[in-house]
Structure formats: C-alpha cells, structure tokens
Amino acid sequence: MRNVSPCTSKTLSLETQPPTSVQ
Question: Where is the region Disordered (predicted)?
C-alpha cells in the first residue's frame, strides 16, 4: 500500500507497526 516492496506480505502483517524492518 505505502511502498510496493518485495516484502508486501510483511508490510501487511506490520500494518499496525511502522515498516522499520522493511526499510
């Protein structure tokens, strides 16, 4: 949604928390 990264699954799971692991 925010950033179309290869970790979209993780982003959805971390929707409650900021994408710190993603970035």
Answer: 1-23
